[in-house]
Amino acid sequence: MYDGRNIFTFEKMMENILIEFIKKVLFDLYKESVSEIQLQKTRKDFEGDLTLVVFPFTRFSKESPENTGAEIGNKLLSHKYIKKFNVVNGFLNLQIEEKVWLSQFNEILKETNFGFTKTKDSSPVHIVEFSSPNTNKPLHLGHLRNNFLGNSISEIIKASGEKVKKVQIINDRGIHICKSMVAWLDFGHGETPMSTKTKGDHFVGKYYVKFDQEYKKEVSNLVESGMPKKEAERNAPIFLKAQDMLLKWESKDKEVYDLWKKMNSWVYEGFNMTYKKLGIDFDKNYYESDTYLLGKKVVEIGLKKNIFYTKDDGSVWIDLSSEGLDEKIILRSDGTAVYMTQDIGTAINRHEDFNFSNMTYTVGNEQDYHFKVLFLILDKLGFSWAKNCFHLSYGMVDLPTGKMKSREGTVVDADDLVNEMIKNAAILSSELGKLDEVKKEEKDLLDETVALGALKYYILKVDPKKRMLFNPEESIDFNGNTGPFIQYTYARIRSILRKNNQDLNFKKTIKLSKREIDLIKSILEYPKVIQESARSYNPALVANYIYELVKDYNSYYQATPILKAKDKNVISFRVLLSKKVSENIKSAMSLLGIDVPERM
RNA sequence: GGCCCAGUAGUUCAACUGGAUAGAAUUUCAGAUUUCGGCUCUGACGGUUGGAGGUUCGAAUCCUCCCUGGGUCACCA
Q1: Beta-carbon contacts of residue A261 (< 8 Å; ≥ 6 apart)
Q2: A21 near A76, Cβ under 8 Å?
Q3: How far is the CA of A328 from the C1' of B2 (A)?
Q4: Residue A380: is its pLDDT beyond 60?
Q5: Which nucleotide's C1' is closest to A461 (Cα)?
Q6: How confident is the model at residue A439 (pLDDT cuts 50, 70, 90)?
Q7: pLDDT value at position A10?
Q8: How far apart, in whole angstroms, are the C-alpha atoms of residue A272 and residue A281?
Q9: SS3 letters for A478-523?
Q10: Within A 392-411, residues with CB less than 7 Å from strand B
Q11: What's the pLDDT band for A273 if we cut at 50, 70, 90?
Q12: Is the pLDDT reported for residue A456 higher than 80?
C-alpha cells in the first residue's frame, strides 16, 4: 500500500540503476533473463557498499560461485558508479565511487525534512487508536507501552506520507465505575481530589480498591455465616449496590448520573496531567457512554443481511464456525450491548467521521481473538474498509518478579514510575555537575526530557510483538543502548555547532574517510527506515536505526577532530556532516516521541 | 483439551524478512584524552539459536513432530 510513491531513497535509486545494468550483464554473459536480483547492503566487516548474491546464477553459469562472481564483477566495472569489487564465498561486493556519496550528501543538505514523505490532500487517512483506559483507576506500566507505541506509530505513519488521526475510546461506563462510586458514597465522607490534594485518577482508583476490600470482607462474613461462596459473591450488599447503581445509570437517574460525571471529570483531569507529561495527545476521544448505543445500528444491518440470527431468548449471534471460529454473541438477551457490539458500532462511526482508508488498533495481544472476529464481522457486513483494519498487537510487560498483578499489588503505576525516573535523572545530572550554571526551571525540564527519553526508548526499542521485561534498575541506566546515550550524542553535536563560527562551504575535491562514507550511508538510509517501520508497524526499527547511527558517530567523533581539523574546507564538511547527523537524530527521536536537549 | 503467540551469549534485546564468521548492550577483565562535552571510545571473555527430523547451493528465519512459557476459548471489557 506504500507503493507508487516517489520516495527519495538512495538505496532504491541506486538499486534501480544497478539492477538494470546487472540484468544486462547477465544476459550478455549467459543469455539468461533474470527477473529477481538480490542486491543488499554489504555487511560491515566486508569491503564494499552493495552486495550481489551470485548463488542463484551458478545454475546457468556452470562455474563456481567465486568464478561467477568475478566474471560478473569484471563486467560491472564498466559502470561509472562502480569503483572496485571483491568476491567472498559467492558474494560479490561492489564498491561505489566516492564522489557518488559526496554528491548524495550535497543533495540531502538541501532537504529540510529529510526522510519524511509529504502528505497531500489526496493522501489516505489513517486512524490510530491507542491508550483507551478505564476510568476507574490510574494508568500503569502496561498503558505506558500502549501509549508510547500508539503515539510513535502514529508519528511514523504520518512521516511515511499518510494523514493520521489519533483516537482513543474511553471506557467510562459499566460496573467497574459504579464500584468506585458506591465506595466513595459509603466511605468518602465527601472528600475530593482537591481537599485531599490527590491526583484525580488516583483518588478514584483508591475507592475502586476500597470497594474490593469491602466486598471481600462482606463475602467472607457471609461465608462464615454459612452461605456458599458463589452465592455470597453474588449477594454481598455492596455488590448489589453497585449493580443497582448501574441500572440507575442506564436509566439516566439524575443523581447517579451527576455523581458519575463528577467522578469521571476527576479522572480525566488526572489523565490529562499524565498525558501532558508523557507528551501524548489525541485528535478525537470517543466515549463508551456515547458509543454503546451504536450496537443497535449494527444489529439492524446484520439482521437485515442475514448475517446475524436471533435466539429464542432474544439474544443476537453470529455463527463463524465456517471460518474455523465459534459462535459469538452480538447483543445480550436483555438488549444491552457487549464489547463486540460496541466495537463494530464505533468502527462504523469512525468511518463516517473520517472516511479513513486504514484503521489501526493498538491493543494488547490478549485480544488477538477479539480483533480477528471483529474484522471478520465487519467484512461480512460488507464494509470494504474492513480489510484495511489492523490490530497492532503487542506483548505484555513483565517485571523481574513476574507478571504484574493488581491483586498482589505488583502493578507499576505510570505516574510513580515517571516521577521516579525524573528523580534519578536529577541525581545523575547533579553528580555530573555540568549544568551548575543552568537555571532551576530549565534543569527541571531537562530532567524530564532525559527521564522520559530513557523510559520511552527502553520500551520502544523492543519489537512490539514480543513480550518484554521491564527491569526498573536497568531502565534508569543511561549507558549503552539507551535514550540518554542518544540524547548525549545529540547535545555534544549541538555544542560543536554552537562553537563553530565560520561559513560552511566545502569543495567537492574533499577526501572522505571510511567512517565518513559510513556515516553518509547511514544518513541516507533514513527514508527507507521510516517506510519500513510504518509498513511493519514497528517503531523498534527506528530505535535501532538511531542507535546504529549514534554509535557510528561517536566512534567518528572520537577518532576525528572536527573544529580542530587542518583546513577550513575540511572543518566545513565535518561540521555539516555532524549537523546532518544531529538532524537525523532529532527527527528520528521525534518519531519515538522523544525530545532531545541542547545540553545535558 | 482446541486455537494463537513466543523460545537466540549469564541477563536484556538485534539480525535488512532465506544469505557470509548469529550482532549490540549489560556484567567481568584489559586499554585510550597535551583535542571539539568521558553519560565517550578501542579490545577480550561469553552461543549446539529449546530439542529432533525435513526442504536447498544456504535455515535463528520455511515445513512436521515433540519440550517449555504465555495468551485465549464468557450474555466481562
Answers
A1: none
A2: yes
A3: 16
A4: yes
A5: B13
A6: confident
A7: 63
A8: 9
A9: CCCCCHHHHHHHHHHHHHHHHHCCCCCCCCCCCCCCHHHHHHHHHH
A10: 395-396, 403
A11: very high
A12: yes
A8 touches strand B (CB under 7 A): no
CA distances from A307 to A202, A242, A337, A338, A386 (A): 44, 36, 17, 17, 16
Chain B nucleotides covered by protein, CB below 7 Å: 4-7, 11-17, 19-21, 24-27, 35-42, 57-58, 70-77
Q: Please give the protein residue whose CA is closest to the C1' of the nucleotide B24.
A: A481
Q: Please state the rounded mean pLDDT for residues A14-18.
A: 78
Q: Which nucleotide is nearest to A324 (CA to C1')?
A: B3
Q: What ipTM was assigned to the predicted interfaces of this complex?
A: 0.95
Q: A32 falls in which pLDDT band (50, 70, 90)? A: confident
Q: Are A295 and A305 in contact (CB under 8 A)?
A: no
Please name the fold of domain A10-96: Gyrase A; domain 2 (3.30.1360)
Best CA proximity match to A371, nearest among A353, A359, A383: A359
Q: Where in chain A is the domain with CATH 3.30.1360.70?
A: 10-96
pLDDT at A444 over 60: yes
Rounded CA separation A538/A395 (Å): 13
Largest Cα separation within chain A, whole Å, is: 95
Average the pLDDT over A209-218 and give the result. Answer: 91
What's the CA–C1' distance between A367 and B55, in Å?
A: 34
Quick check: A468 CB within 7 A of strand B?
yes
What is the rounded average pLDDT for all residues in chain A? 90
